[in-house]
Write a structure and sequence with these properties.
Chains A, B: Keywords: DNA-binding, Transcription, Transcription regulation. Chains A, B: InterPro entries: DNA-bd_HTH_TetR-type_CS, Homeodomain-like_sf, HTH_TetR, Tet_transcr_reg_TetR-rel_C_sf, TetR_C. The structure is a homodimer. Helix content of chain A is about 70%, strand content about 0%. By secondary structure, the first copy, chain A, is mainly alpha-helical. Chain A has a domain at about 60-200: Orthogonal Bundle (Tetracycline Repressor, domain 2). The interface between A and B is large, with 62 and 63 residues.
Chain lengths: ~210, ~210
DNA sequence: GATTACATACCAACCAGTCGGTATCTTTAA
DNA sequence: TTAAAGATACCGACTGGTTGGTATGTAATC
């Protein structure tokens, strides 16, 4: 990638179109022809930049990581002094992103991995990288919040960061099923409540199942 | 439906095959031909029982509701005397179901609604019904647990039941991305911890955001 | 002048869905 | 008791449009 900034060339037009089209219709139902039409390029351009459809899927996941990575890196929740406030601010930011139609606020890689995890390992790995890398941006703050409170729980910062991602992904599924963001916002409130309780009311309680 | 028990006729063979095939490959990538081959029936039989592919999708969601509904109705977690123990027992039961390959323990309707929520409203509604009806089986126990503790929180039993479903659905997405159930089990542990904290350590704390 | 970045035309395989036909089960009435 | 009559369940060849992918050509750029 010599040019990090995206000129309106065929490749980036295809990737941008892929983000919205795959989020709306899923990966399998997104056809190369439709994608080219939406991006305003020809099929020749598509197969010039991508060897096949799966390679576009991988590139779309990576493009998604870059776009969302920049969005979250520039978000204001990092400014809080207390690390727990930064984590809670992250969740508030996620909740504030629930705007527009369902395809506008849902997650590309969460959608795509559901269809491809068995049939396209390259896409699954790209989606895993996207989710896991994003989750890792929360780990330092979680760990700092634990240290501030001298907590030594039986869960790891990584597992909590991944749990947060799981709640968000699940909230999107419910929003899709119910046709609106309200149920997702409610779920994010429950998650916020969990973090508040966990760090302020009893984070050292042993694992209720003991395993 | 005069005969509630499933004879090995073409329709139920197709529905059973659909459950596993759609969970593994997704709805769009599941072709009618492949489905018929897996079920051991012909295409003529398919279009005798279903007007089109979408109608199979709806029927598959309903079949899924019946199969899983019977599974959960017969599960032992209902035997606990305390309603909170029944809810926690439900979660332990869900965790115990994380056996076999990823397609074996993931949720059909969560998978299907992601691909169809924009393009096939009938399927989306069927998936919503499946999830919401299942969530509703938890509401009475949640409400009873609240009453036992004289709680008057700013969340409803319905929202908590749906949040539980969101965590489960999200856990399945993470399991698909990571290729195994461990991350899903970890997320279910966090959810169990949330319920424990919520009902035993501070369920009356006000909404941290205040909205 | 050669590599890159597209455009156009084309293809074989595949897709959901159709259709004429057969086997079997149910109803009815002589 | 049985047989005509109709409905249901299923079969499998066929179709027309779509699919991902290719082959080849051309204009711009390095």
């Amino acid at each position: 990638m010599p040019a990090p900034t995206a000129k309106p060339n065929a490749r980036s037009k295809l990737l941008d179109a892929a983000l919205s089209m795959i989020r709306a219709k899923g990966y399998s139902a997104t056809t190369v022809d439709e994608l080219c039409a939406a991006a305003g390029v020809t099929k020749g351009a598509f197969f010039h930049h991508f060897r096949n459809k799966d390679e576009l899927g991988v590139a779309a996941a990576e493009h998604w990581s870059e776009v969302t990575g920049a969005l979250f890196a520039a978000a204001p929740y990092h400014d809080h002094a207390d690390p727990l406030d930064r984590v809670l601010g992250y969740l508030a930011f996620r909740k504030a992103l629930l705007q527009g139609g369902v395809p506008d606020f849902t997650c590309l890689v969460g959608t795509m991995v559901q269809e491809t995890y068995e049939t396209a390992p390259a896409i699954r790995d790209a989606c895993d990288r996207s989710i896991s890398t994003h989750a890792r941006t929360l780990e330092a703050d979680i760990e700092a919040a634990m240290r501030d409170r001298a907590m030594s729980p039986d869960w790891t910062p990584e597992s909590l960061a991944l749990h947060i991602q799981a709640v968000l992904q699940g909230a999107f599924i419910l929003a899709k099923a119910k046709g609106g963001p309200q149920v997702a916002a409610d779920s994010m409130d429950h998650l916020t409540r969990y973090l508040t309780l966990l760090f302020c009311a009893g984070g050292d309680t042993p694992n209720p199942k003991g395993d």
